[in-house]
Backbone:
């Protein structure tokens, strides 16, 4: 039992991450680029490369997905919050203690994802479902999202930028394990992504395109981490007080969210933050 635990710890380590990063080739960018190109060609074939037509060709799909998922409002509302940047990074806060190398990629990928998200939203300015469809024809769960652009889904970009970093950081060596790992990560990503349709905040193609953009952001983040050491300081224990303050602030935000929304996902996030704080506090002041 003890030997197996040591093997697990050895696998989920900085050494494993660095080894996997070294195997990653620029050809990995082909997948998200081809995916996005196929999406553009599809929209072109449907004469939907316009602000007016883009939502209309998805109306039936949007209504069907929204109707199916909105039957589980509490579950959908909890899952969709995982795509929030603060929540998702907080859930992986403990990785800063055990595998700081992955956090270097998280930081780079998140910055790239934010640039893509804000830039593309501003450029395309696609109206959200609430601005296009009859409000009585679909279900809105949680707060209404009438503002800013619908395309692409920021929650989805964030989700995939973090999950794809995770995917490549701990990619198994055996083919079967590798296939199951990839399927599991992608399934989790799309489960979170499509809740954005379930809550009535996004069109289906918003989240589909967001997954590819998040994938692209993750790869860029990994290659930045591999080539440059700009975030190497995050693994240095002398900077733990900075992250402890950051985690305390994040915990405060989660407490406020619990007070206003009272979702289970916030309680889980709070537990992870407190555990991360405990580990970092113990290590920092022990020395």
Residues:
């Amino acid at each position: 039992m003890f030997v197996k635990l040591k093997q697990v710890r050895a696998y989920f380590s900085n050494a494993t991450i660095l080894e996997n990063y070294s195997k990653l080739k620029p050809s990995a960018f082909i997948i998200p680029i081809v995916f996005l190109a196929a999406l553009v060609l599809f929209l072109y074939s449907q004469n939907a490369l316009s602000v007016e037509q883009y939502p209309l060709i998805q109306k039936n799909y949007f209504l069907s997905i929204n109707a199916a998922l909105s039957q589980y409002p509490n579950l959908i509302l909890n899952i969709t919050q995982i795509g929030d940047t603060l929540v998702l990074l907080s859930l992986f806060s403990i990785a800063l203690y055990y595998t700081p190398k992955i956090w270097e990629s998280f930081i780079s990928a998140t910055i790239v994802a934010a640039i893509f998200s804000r830039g593309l939203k501003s450029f395309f300015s696609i109206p959200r479902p609430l601005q296009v469809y009859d409000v009585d024809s679909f279900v809105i769960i949680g707060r209404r999202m009438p503002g800013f652009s619908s395309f692409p889904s920021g929650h989805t970009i964030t989700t995939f930028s973090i999950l794809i970093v995770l995917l490549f950081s701990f990619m198994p060596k055996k083919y079967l394990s590798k296939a199951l790992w990839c399927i599991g990560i992608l399934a989790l990503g799309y489960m979170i992504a499509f809740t954005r349709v379930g809550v009535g905040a996004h069109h289906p193609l918003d989240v589909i395109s967001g997954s590819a953009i998040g994938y692209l952001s993750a790869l860029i983040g990994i290659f930045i981490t591999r080539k440059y050491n700009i975030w190497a300081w995050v693994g240095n224990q002398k900077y733990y007080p900075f992250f402890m303050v950051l985690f305390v602030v994040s915990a405060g935000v989660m407490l406020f969210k619990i007070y206003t929304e009272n979702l289970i996902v916030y309680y889980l996030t709070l537990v992870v933050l407190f555990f991360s704080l405990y580990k970092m506090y113990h290590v920092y002041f022990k020395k």
User: Anything to note?
Assistant: The first helix runs from residue 2 to 11. The chain has two domains: 12-229, 236-287. The chain has a mean pLDDT of 92. The chain is about 70% helix and 0% strand.
